[in-house]
Amino acid sequence: MRRTLAGIAAVLGLALGQQQVTLFWSGAITGPTSDAGAPYGAAVEDYCKWANERKLVPGVVFNCVVRDDQYNNANTQRFFEEAVDRFKIPVFLSYATGANLQLKPLIQELRIPTIPASMHIELIDPPNNDYIFLPTTSYSEQVVALLEYIARQKKGAKVALVVHPSPFGRAPVEDARKAARELGLQIVDVQEVGSGNLDNTALLKRFEQAGVEYVVHQNVAGPVANILKDAKRLGLKMRHLGAHYTGGPDLIALAGDAAEGFLWATSFYMAHEDAPGIRLQKEIGRKYGRPENFIESVNYTNGMLAAAIAVEAIRRAQERFKRVTNETVYSKLAPPAYPA
After folding, report:
1. In angstroms, rounded to a whole number, what is the distance separating the alpha carbons of residues 94 and 311?
2. How does pLDDT run across 123-170, given as a tens digit for each residue?
3. Total structural domains in the chain?
């Protein structure tokens, strides 16, 4: 699917000599992990439209472009090249771990500031790490924090990791193994589970036989919900925990009371909390007619954060340099690397 959203305001703005700047996102609106990608992309689109209506960046009109890459790295690369060649983007809003790892050298070569949905720590590790910015804690930090919690509950506990069958899922595994050794925990199994695993009885029985007491998930909400419902049906008492994309209102909606007791690591406020960002999120989502399950999704929050960071960097670049380019935007994301 391709959608280019350029409103009448953009046309009128250009007629008055304003600069048109494309805010471009590529991610999984359909396909694997789309339960996270669809609300994330909607938030990018909505915040971009809202930035235009509120004239958040004087002298700039945003062209809001959202592409569905279907969690396919080749699609993502094609869209990135289109964004650079056709739209001359000053910043790239990206999505999947695998696609970002593949694009990392090209992002560095072209010097395009990039804000990914992926929180994989290797994206900001050398080499080719100058132009990628994680807006939140990494998967590794989240999973290690959960392991630290487990270690406080029971010394020497037996832990299983259940991860998405992708670079996203595997991203924190080695850091988790290292942390477990230092914390005195036993990681007795690592299993990859995707959305196609509808019956997890064999998996959970295997964990039970191995004496697993805690299961740490690095996944999206759908597969986790299936596992939680199967664990409840089987009467298993092992505790389940998960990193950012596993939980929140999305998991509760899918798992129901089977999600009771699930411990979740995230960097965001929730939709039920009274915080300025959440109030704005609800205002924007309802303004543009999004369903409540999107508006309340932590992935809508995540996409809005990425778009807001990009817009603010563009605003600061426009204010300081009177021009918006990849270099001026980069200077406002990483000031020491560029003369002010």
Report:
1. 15
2. 999 999 999 999 999 999 999 999 999 999 999 999 999 999 999 999
3. 2
Residue 33 CA, chain-centre distance (Å), reads: 10
* pLDDT given at position 335: 63
Instruction: Judge contact between 99 and 77, C-beta under 8 A.
Output: yes
Cβ–Cβ contacts within 10 Å for residue 54, how many?
Answer: 8
Where is 267: in which H helix or E strand? none
Asked whether the whole model's pTM tops 0.85, one would answer: yes
Asked whether residue 132 falls in the same domain as residue 277, the answer is yes
Q: Compute the average pLDDT of residues 111-125.
A: 98
CA distance 9 to 15: 10
The b/e string for 6-45 (b: 16+ C-beta within 10 A; e otherwise) is: beeebeebeeeebebbbbbbbbbbeebbbbbbbbbbbbbb
Task: Return the ∠ at Cα 243 (arms to 240 and 244), rounded to 5°.
Answer: 130
DSSP 41-52: HHHHHHHHHHHH
Residue ranges with strand state E in the chain: 2-5, 19-27, 60-68, 92-94, 114-116, 158-163, 186-192, 214-218, 239-242, 263-264
The answer to whether the beta carbons of residues 329 and 317 sit under 8 Å apart is yes
Residue 329 sits in a domain of what CATH number? 3.40.50.2300
Per the structure, the complete domain to which residue 283 belongs is given by: 2-136+273-337
Same domain, 175 and 55: no
Asked if residues 143 and 175 have their Cβ atoms less than 8 Å apart, the reply is yes
State the Cα–Cα distance between residues 117 and 42, nearest whole angstrom: 13
CA-based Rg of the chain, rounded to a whole angstrom?
21
Are 68 and 46 in a shared domain? Answer: yes
Distance (Å, whole) CA 45 – CA 37: 12
- Band the pLDDT of 196: cuts 50, 70, 90: confident
Helix pair 8-15, 34-53: axis angle to 10 deg: 40
Q: What number is the average pLDDT over the span 249-257?
A: 96
In the beta sheet, which residues pair with residue 26?
67
